[in-house]
Design goal:
Blueprint (H helix, E strand, L loop, with lengths): L4 E7 L12 H4 L3 H11 E4 L4 E5 L8 E7 L20 H21 L6 E8 L19 E8 H6 L1 E2 L15 H17 L5 E4 L1 H4 L12 E4 L9 H26 L12 H7 L4 H16 L1 H6 L6 E7 L5 E7 L12 E7 L1 H24 L4 E2 L9
């Protein structure tokens, strides 16, 4: 049966005490929490402040790690930290791209059959415009990447997720962009972006047969597969997609906020925004529809994320091709939901410890490859050494 899946992932309860008077998501943005993340789960760190760590609250116990741009020591204001790739210094981004390439290559090497494993990597923006106390705000307010592998057998045997689960509303009929501006959205990407490695593909070529996701999102095939990720041109195009998305998002919500708003001053593709969006009746009708509802529905208006919030993902489809997709963010912050996988994390130390040795073995091997490529130094914890 084709449907999104909901899996249960056990984890070891985290022995962290939240100070009295603080909400958990406020504490998780603190320097103290990041210290715990380094000392108990840190795998590797480099001079660019990129920290690789084991996910204590993981999505999968097959393979699951993250790299965070750890600015907690240098930017104490959580709302002032970088939350998207375009805000990261070029020299940091170059190192980050190489780390991405090595980890993704390792995942594909270890899990070569798309029929047996779902492989994905990507990032979600942690929108700095949401109040810290809002429900669903990501727990660590800094840009970080996810690298995840799921067992296809586990997904097939999992229960079907509710199609109306709020964490599955990024694409298809639920998505604001897709519901009202499907063709405008795709045409803008196709016309504004000069892509050589990334090739636009239709939904039926990118959807996973098991879940039917991604739904309605623009997708691009990475021509050349994993070898393309070793080329700077790929990462430039990966960033172009994000810049195109940001232009579309800003232009749209500027019109929602203020009727007949001018072209956003910091647009990456100003000519295309003006010609293809600000003179597009479909685009402006959709903005009016949202604006009119904001005036009369305070709960709806309060839920809008006025600044660009996105999830950008590289994943392997059923045919073994690497696909890039991007979506506006929803209430949920788990990037897996773009592919129709809802993760229900369950505290169960005994179940987690059964999977832990094989998981850590893989994490330490990919760490060794990163160290060998001069991309950082190992971190020792009570679970593993520095080397």
């Amino acid at each position: 049966m084709q449907a999104p899946r909901q899996i249960v992932t056990p984890f070891r309860p985290i022995p962290l005490d939240v100070p009295e008077g603080m909400k958990p998501n406020e504490f998780f943005n603190s320097t103290e929490n990041l210290n715990d993340l380094v000392n108990n789960n840190g795998l590797l760190v480099n001079p660019e402040n990129l920290l690789m760590y084991r996910k204590a609250l993981g999505h999968s116990n097959v393979f699951d790690t993250s790299i965070i741009y750890n600015t907690s020591q240098t930017i104490l204001n959580p709302l002032g930290r970088p939350v998207r790739r375009t805000q990261v210094p070029v020299e940091v981004r170059n190192v980050w791209n190489r780390m991405n390439q090595i980890i993704i290559e390792y995942m594909l090497e270890q899990f070569p059959d798309p029929a047996e494993h779902l492989v994905l990597a990507g990032e979600a923006s942690l929108d700095a415009t949401w109040p810290l106390t809002s429900p669903g705000v990501p727990s660590i307010r800094m840009l970080h990447n996810h690298f995840i592998v799921f067992s296809q057998a586990e997904l097939q045997n999992a229960e079907c997720a509710d199609h109306d689960n709020p964490n599955l509303t990024d694409g298809g009929q639920h998505s604001l962009f897709q519901a009202y501006m499907h063709q405008v959205y795709r045409d803008f990407f196709n016309n504004a972006l000069d892509l050589q490695i990334l090739k636009s593909v239709e939904s039926h070529d990118s959807q996973l047969k098991l879940t039917g996701y991604p739904q309605g999102l623009p997708c691009w095939e990475i021509q050349g597969g994993i070898d393309a990720l070793k080329k700077p041109q790929f990462w430039k195009e990966y960033d172009l997609i994000l810049k195109g998305f940001i232009d579309f998002y800003r232009a749209f919500f500027s019109q929602v906020s203020s009727r007949n708003a001018p072209l956003p001053k910091d647009a990456y593709f100003p000519e295309h925004v003006e010609a293809e969006l600000l003179f597009n009746n479909c685009f402006l009708k959709a903005a009016k529809k949202v604006r009119d509802r904001c005036v009369t529905d305070p709960a709806y208006a309060n839920a809008i994320r006025w600044q660009p919030a996105f999830k950008q993902l590289i994943f392997r489809n059923d045919d073994g091709k690497l696909i890039v997709t991007i979506s506006q963010n929803s209430v949920g912050n788990a990037i897996t939901e773009l592919l129709g996988v809802v993760v229900n994390r369950k505290p169960d130390a005994e179940a987690y410890e059964k999977a832990e040795p094989a998981l850590i073995e893989k994490l330490l091997e990919v760490r060794r490859r990163l160290i060998e490529a001069d991309l950082g130094e190992g971190i020792g914890t009570e679970y593993w050494g520095k080397e």
